[in-house]
Amino acid sequence: MFRPWRNQRQFAPSRARRVRRGVSGGLVATLALLAAACGGETPGGDTAGPPRPGGVLRYGLSLAPTCADPAQSQTNQTLYVTRQIVDSLTDQDPATGEIRPWLAQSWEVTPDAKSFTFHLRPGVTFSDGTPLTATSVQKNFDAVLRTITGAKAPLPASYLAGYTGTTVVDPTTARVDFDRPNAQFLQAVSTPQLGIVSDATTEKSPEQRCQGEVIGSGPFVYTEYRQGASATVTKRTGYAWGSAVFAHQGEAYLDRIEFRVVPESGVRSGSLASGQLDAVSDALPQDAPQIEAAGGRVQVTSNPGVPFGIQPNLTRGPLRDAAVRAALLPAIDRKELVDTVLGPQFRPATSSLASKTPAYVDLSAQLGYDADAARRILDQAGWAPGADGIRVKDGTRLSFAILFSRAFAGNQAILELVQQQLRKVGVEVRLEPAADADYTARQRNRDFDALYYNTTRADGDILRTTFGLDGQNYGGRGPIPDLDQALAAELQTTDTAARAQLIGTAQRLVLDNGLWIPTIELSQAIGVAGAVSDLKFEASARLQFFDAWLHR
Fold it and tell me: For 301, which of 20, 317, 471, 537 could close a Cys bridge (C-beta 3.0–4.6 Å)?
């Protein structure tokens, strides 16, 4: 029986239980609640005067970090930690989407988008004292594909598709080459997954890196990392090469950040209100009054990338039928999902890209709720209602299972309501919640009827990495010439307008071919104490602590 999620606390695991690890593979979805659905993004600063250095910020994570290595980080809660350790070659302005300098002070791209030459900032060092060089860049990209591999680092490996190697032109100049155009690469190297670690770290095994043996050039360094439990990072003394997006240069203001795992939302908000924590993940709507009464605030932002949705397995069961997939689009009432399960801060999905993603196209007309239209599509395709109301064709029952993780607390309740909505048009859905290891194994082996997840990235190329024949393609689709052409072409042009048009075409074709049945957009909501200023979201809705400071 369906129960509204927003009034349920039982989705948060008990403190007495082991905290569940975040889902790996293509799923970057996590326990993320509240959105800036109607009013845009909540600012991270205030008017408490000029920033002051010093102090310890105590942060409450809703899920345990799963890996100390940015390249292998798959959940937002993990990336909140790992992002602080590494810098990237470029950064992306969250307000404009513009690519800005970071470790690379300048770059050139060949007209065919096959070669990228990065000119590194001089004087940058890793926290072990070794210098950042072009060789460091070479070793990092080589390690992603040859040591970590796409099995453990699927997103960064997909960003490096077609990689042929990095040439060390001189100690501060690296040329990265591909065997095909790769126009998305400048944005890709702004992500934490392609953040630059020390030469010594690239020699470590994936397991060693996950356990905390990671050295970066970032504004913070690990002083403690307990796999699946907690992490502490300390200010890097002498840091002087911050991103052009940062509000200040020099060292970070905070002396230390202590990341603690607090699964229950009520305990997180109570600890924030009582002064035991300074900021917390996943502030629920019912927690906001308590946070605000204590002088705090809730900062919200929506995630770019692929919104939450159902990905059919096109290789088995009734979802092989294109008519069934077409009927699912109008059979789901996305507004009801938001209004009943999540609340007004969330946003229904209106495309195969989330609305905050560059080159997003509003396809809400294609995703309008129309149960009668869904029934007509199924009737015309020969799926007739059976005695119990579930449709049948040639002896096959219109029934399929959805495999999902509980890494986002609302998944179960959302899918329970989807289950009810689809039954009204004669479609039976079985829900299959899975532990992370089982989910990942079945995802990779394509052992499912349908998946439910989302993927975050502030670039429309996420469509290629999710649905492309050379990408994850968990749905197992075959060639679709128009879609394949659009996905290949968006990699071949560096013209922003032309690329946006191609990504727009790809968004439509993903829906037209029933490769994704969108539901809702993911968001982040951070509870922040009144004593904290300038805790900000970066372009991919992850936290940036460099500019944060305390005034207590």
Answer: 537
Residue 189: closest CA among 276, 102, 120:
102
240-257: average pLDDT: 97
**Any idea what DSSP says for residue 341?**
I
Name the residue among 493, 486, 440 with its Cα closest to residue 463. Answer: 486
Q: What is the Cα–Cα distance from 172 to 120, expressed in whole angstroms?
A: 5
**How many Å apart are CA 200 and CA 2, to the nearest integer?**
52
Mean pLDDT across 428-435: 96
**How far apart are the C-alpha atoms of 24 and 434, rounded to whole Å?**
12
Give dist(CA 337, CA 350) in Å, integer: 13
Residues 6+ apart with CB under 8 A from 316: 449
DSSP state of 17: S
- How far apart are the C-alpha atoms of 151 and 158, rounded to whole Å? 11
Distances (CA, A) of 125 to 235, 314, 378, 395, 549: 14, 49, 62, 66, 24
Please tell me the distance from the alpha carbon of residue 180 to that of residue 164, in angstroms, as a whole number.
10
Please state the pTM of the whole predicted model: 0.85
pLDDT of residue 378: 98
In this structure, what token pair is assigned to residue 357?
A: 């993603």
Query: Model confidence at 71, in pLDDT bands (50, 70, 90)?
Result: very high
How large is the average pLDDT for residues 116-143?
A: 98
Which DSSP string do the residues of 134-191 spell out, in sequence order?
HHHHHHHHHHIIIIIHHHH-HHHHHHTTTEEEEEEEETTEEEEEESS--TTHHHHTTS
Residue-wise DSSP of 240-298: ----TTSSS-SS-S-SEEEEEE---HHHHHHHHHTTS-SEEE---GGGHHHHHHTT-EE
φ and ψ of 402, to 5 deg: -115, 120
Q: Can you tell me the distance from the alpha carbon of 16 to that of 251, in angstroms, rounded to the nearest whole number? A: 39
How do residues 171-203 score in pLDDT, each as one tens digit? 999 999 999 999 999 999 999 999 999 999 999
